[in-house]
Amino acid sequence: MKNVGCRIVSDFNRPDVELVNLFKDLPVANIDDCMNRMGAIDSHFFPLNKTPLLGVAFTVKVPEGDNLMFHKAMDIAQPGDVIMVDAGGDKHRAILGELMISYCKSRGIAGVIVDGSVRDADALEEMDFPVYAKGVTPNGPYKNGPGEINTPVTIGGQVVCPGDIVVGDQDGVVIIKPEDAKELAKQTRKVTEKETLIMEEIVKKGTYNRPWVNEKLEELGCEYL
User: What pTM value is reported for the model?
Assistant: First the structure.
Protein backbone atom coordinates (compact mmCIF):
# COMPACT_ATOMS: atom_id res chain seq x y z
CA MET A 1 0.00 0.00 0.00
CA LYS A 2 1.96 2.97 -1.30
CA ASN A 3 -0.69 5.68 -1.51
CA VAL A 4 -0.90 6.56 2.17
CA GLY A 5 -3.91 8.77 2.82
CA CYS A 6 -5.87 7.48 -0.19
CA ARG A 7 -6.45 3.74 -0.07
CA ILE A 8 -9.22 1.22 0.39
CA VAL A 9 -8.93 -2.11 2.17
CA SER A 10 -11.90 -3.96 0.71
CA ASP A 11 -12.29 -6.66 3.36
CA PHE A 12 -11.04 -7.76 6.77
CA ASN A 13 -11.56 -10.50 9.36
CA ARG A 14 -14.86 -10.10 11.16
CA PRO A 15 -15.61 -11.76 14.51
CA ASP A 16 -18.28 -14.45 14.58
CA VAL A 17 -21.83 -13.21 14.96
CA GLU A 18 -22.17 -15.33 18.11
CA LEU A 19 -19.29 -13.41 19.69
CA VAL A 20 -20.81 -10.05 18.82
CA ASN A 21 -24.23 -11.08 20.11
CA LEU A 22 -22.80 -11.80 23.56
CA PHE A 23 -23.22 -8.06 24.15
CA LYS A 24 -26.85 -7.83 23.05
CA ASP A 25 -28.92 -6.03 25.72
CA LEU A 26 -25.92 -5.47 28.00
CA PRO A 27 -25.72 -1.88 29.32
CA VAL A 28 -22.79 0.10 27.96
CA ALA A 29 -22.07 1.51 31.41
CA ASN A 30 -21.62 -1.99 32.83
CA ILE A 31 -19.41 -3.04 29.93
CA ASP A 32 -17.24 0.03 30.44
CA ASP A 33 -16.98 -0.64 34.18
CA CYS A 34 -15.60 -4.08 33.34
CA MET A 35 -13.06 -2.41 31.02
CA ASN A 36 -11.67 -0.46 33.98
CA ARG A 37 -13.81 2.46 32.76
CA MET A 38 -11.45 3.02 29.83
CA GLY A 39 -13.39 1.65 26.83
CA ALA A 40 -15.84 4.41 25.94
CA ILE A 41 -15.55 7.08 23.29
CA ASP A 42 -15.67 10.59 24.72
CA SER A 43 -18.84 12.20 26.04
CA HIS A 44 -19.07 14.81 23.27
CA PHE A 45 -20.74 12.17 21.08
CA PHE A 46 -24.52 11.84 21.36
CA PRO A 47 -27.12 9.47 19.89
CA LEU A 48 -29.50 10.94 17.31
CA ASN A 49 -32.22 8.50 18.43
CA LYS A 50 -32.85 5.75 20.96
CA THR A 51 -32.04 2.74 18.77
CA PRO A 52 -29.41 0.51 20.45
CA LEU A 53 -26.20 -0.17 18.56
CA LEU A 54 -24.36 -3.46 18.15
CA GLY A 55 -22.05 -4.52 15.34
CA VAL A 56 -18.57 -4.74 13.86
CA ALA A 57 -16.37 -1.71 13.16
CA PHE A 58 -15.91 -0.75 9.50
CA THR A 59 -13.58 2.23 9.56
CA VAL A 60 -13.42 5.31 7.35
CA LYS A 61 -11.03 8.25 7.53
CA VAL A 62 -11.98 11.44 5.67
CA PRO A 63 -10.63 14.97 5.42
CA GLU A 64 -12.56 17.48 7.49
CA GLY A 65 -15.88 18.24 5.81
CA ASP A 66 -15.50 15.69 2.98
CA ASN A 67 -17.51 12.49 2.48
CA LEU A 68 -16.19 10.91 -0.73
CA MET A 69 -14.89 7.85 1.12
CA PHE A 70 -18.10 7.51 3.11
CA HIS A 71 -20.00 7.19 -0.17
CA LYS A 72 -17.69 4.34 -1.17
CA ALA A 73 -17.95 2.76 2.28
CA MET A 74 -21.74 2.54 2.04
CA ASP A 75 -21.38 0.40 -1.08
CA ILE A 76 -18.87 -2.10 0.29
CA ALA A 77 -19.75 -2.41 3.99
CA GLN A 78 -21.48 -5.66 4.88
CA PRO A 79 -24.63 -6.33 6.92
CA GLY A 80 -23.83 -6.03 10.61
CA ASP A 81 -21.02 -3.52 10.08
CA VAL A 82 -20.95 -0.21 11.96
CA ILE A 83 -19.41 2.49 9.78
CA MET A 84 -17.03 4.49 12.00
CA VAL A 85 -16.08 7.80 10.39
CA ASP A 86 -13.00 9.66 11.59
CA ALA A 87 -13.70 13.18 10.33
CA GLY A 88 -11.14 14.78 12.60
CA GLY A 89 -13.79 16.00 15.01
CA ASP A 90 -14.69 18.89 12.71
CA LYS A 91 -18.30 20.04 13.17
CA HIS A 92 -18.56 22.72 10.48
CA ARG A 93 -19.83 20.41 7.69
CA ALA A 94 -22.13 17.42 7.89
CA ILE A 95 -20.66 14.16 6.61
CA LEU A 96 -24.07 12.54 6.07
CA GLY A 97 -27.82 12.95 6.38
CA GLU A 98 -31.17 11.24 5.88
CA LEU A 99 -30.60 9.91 2.35
CA MET A 100 -27.31 8.25 3.18
CA ILE A 101 -28.57 6.76 6.43
CA SER A 102 -31.63 5.40 4.62
CA TYR A 103 -29.32 3.70 2.13
CA CYS A 104 -27.18 2.26 4.94
CA LYS A 105 -30.27 0.87 6.60
CA SER A 106 -31.47 -0.71 3.35
CA ARG A 107 -28.15 -2.56 3.05
CA GLY A 108 -28.31 -4.03 6.55
CA ILE A 109 -25.55 -1.86 7.99
CA ALA A 110 -25.84 -1.86 11.79
CA GLY A 111 -25.15 1.80 12.53
CA VAL A 112 -23.01 4.87 11.89
CA ILE A 113 -20.73 6.85 14.20
CA VAL A 114 -19.25 10.15 13.00
CA ASP A 115 -16.41 12.00 14.69
CA GLY A 116 -17.89 15.14 13.19
CA SER A 117 -21.36 16.40 12.23
CA VAL A 118 -24.53 15.13 10.58
CA ARG A 119 -27.64 16.88 9.29
CA ASP A 120 -31.37 16.12 8.86
CA ALA A 121 -31.50 15.63 12.63
CA ASP A 122 -35.32 15.56 12.81
CA ALA A 123 -35.48 12.72 10.29
CA LEU A 124 -32.67 10.77 11.96
CA GLU A 125 -34.44 11.11 15.31
CA GLU A 126 -37.46 9.29 13.88
CA MET A 127 -35.47 6.44 12.31
CA ASP A 128 -34.90 3.05 13.94
CA PHE A 129 -31.25 3.10 12.92
CA PRO A 130 -28.49 4.08 15.38
CA VAL A 131 -26.48 7.20 14.55
CA TYR A 132 -23.98 8.93 16.85
CA ALA A 133 -22.23 12.21 16.10
CA LYS A 134 -20.50 15.18 17.69
CA GLY A 135 -22.63 17.88 16.11
CA VAL A 136 -25.45 18.87 13.79
CA THR A 137 -25.20 21.44 11.00
CA PRO A 138 -27.03 22.17 7.73
CA ASN A 139 -23.73 22.77 5.94
CA GLY A 140 -23.14 20.00 3.43
CA PRO A 141 -19.84 18.22 2.69
CA TYR A 142 -17.35 18.35 -0.14
CA LYS A 143 -16.68 15.22 -2.18
CA ASN A 144 -13.07 15.62 -3.22
CA GLY A 145 -11.26 13.04 -1.08
CA PRO A 146 -8.77 11.64 -0.36
CA GLY A 147 -9.38 9.30 2.57
CA GLU A 148 -8.97 5.73 3.73
CA ILE A 149 -11.25 2.76 4.30
CA ASN A 150 -10.55 -0.03 6.81
CA THR A 151 -7.36 1.30 8.31
CA PRO A 152 -7.02 2.12 12.04
CA VAL A 153 -8.75 5.38 13.00
CA THR A 154 -9.34 7.43 16.13
CA ILE A 155 -12.94 7.99 17.21
CA GLY A 156 -13.59 10.01 20.33
CA GLY A 157 -10.19 9.27 21.83
CA GLN A 158 -10.35 5.52 21.13
CA VAL A 159 -8.26 3.75 18.53
CA VAL A 160 -10.65 1.69 16.40
CA CYS A 161 -9.56 -1.11 14.08
CA PRO A 162 -11.67 -2.89 11.47
CA GLY A 163 -13.30 -5.88 13.15
CA ASP A 164 -13.59 -4.38 16.63
CA ILE A 165 -16.95 -4.91 18.35
CA VAL A 166 -19.02 -1.76 18.84
CA VAL A 167 -21.79 -1.42 21.43
CA GLY A 168 -23.89 1.69 22.03
CA ASP A 169 -26.90 2.88 23.98
CA GLN A 170 -28.13 6.20 25.41
CA ASP A 171 -25.10 6.42 27.69
CA GLY A 172 -22.56 6.22 24.87
CA VAL A 173 -20.39 3.80 22.92
CA VAL A 174 -17.68 1.30 23.85
CA ILE A 175 -15.10 -0.31 21.56
CA ILE A 176 -14.19 -3.94 22.31
CA LYS A 177 -11.32 -6.00 20.92
CA PRO A 178 -12.59 -9.42 19.76
CA GLU A 179 -9.93 -11.23 21.79
CA ASP A 180 -11.34 -9.64 24.97
CA ALA A 181 -14.99 -10.23 24.12
CA LYS A 182 -15.81 -13.59 25.75
CA GLU A 183 -14.38 -12.81 29.17
CA LEU A 184 -15.65 -9.24 29.07
CA ALA A 185 -19.20 -10.33 28.27
CA LYS A 186 -19.06 -12.86 31.11
CA GLN A 187 -17.90 -10.24 33.60
CA THR A 188 -20.48 -7.73 32.42
CA ARG A 189 -23.31 -10.22 32.76
CA LYS A 190 -22.29 -10.87 36.36
CA VAL A 191 -22.28 -7.14 37.12
CA THR A 192 -25.69 -6.74 35.50
CA GLU A 193 -27.15 -9.61 37.51
CA LYS A 194 -25.70 -8.13 40.72
CA GLU A 195 -27.24 -4.73 39.95
CA THR A 196 -30.61 -6.38 39.37
CA LEU A 197 -30.50 -7.86 42.87
CA ILE A 198 -29.46 -4.50 44.35
CA MET A 199 -32.37 -2.79 42.61
CA GLU A 200 -34.79 -5.39 43.97
CA GLU A 201 -33.48 -4.70 47.48
CA ILE A 202 -33.94 -0.95 47.03
CA VAL A 203 -37.49 -1.34 45.72
CA LYS A 204 -38.68 -4.00 48.17
CA LYS A 205 -36.78 -3.05 51.35
CA GLY A 206 -35.67 0.53 50.82
CA THR A 207 -32.09 -0.44 51.62
CA TYR A 208 -28.81 -0.09 49.74
CA ASN A 209 -26.00 -1.92 51.52
CA ARG A 210 -22.63 -0.21 50.87
CA PRO A 211 -20.21 -0.88 53.76
CA TRP A 212 -17.32 0.47 51.70
CA VAL A 213 -18.61 4.05 52.13
CA ASN A 214 -17.93 4.18 55.87
CA GLU A 215 -14.75 2.16 55.45
CA LYS A 216 -13.40 4.74 52.99
CA LEU A 217 -14.41 7.65 55.20
CA GLU A 218 -12.63 6.00 58.14
CA GLU A 219 -9.53 5.49 55.99
CA LEU A 220 -9.60 9.21 55.15
CA GLY A 221 -9.92 10.15 58.80
CA CYS A 222 -13.11 12.02 58.08
CA GLU A 223 -14.20 14.26 60.97
CA TYR A 224 -17.84 14.09 62.08
CA LEU A 225 -19.14 17.30 63.67
Answer: 0.95
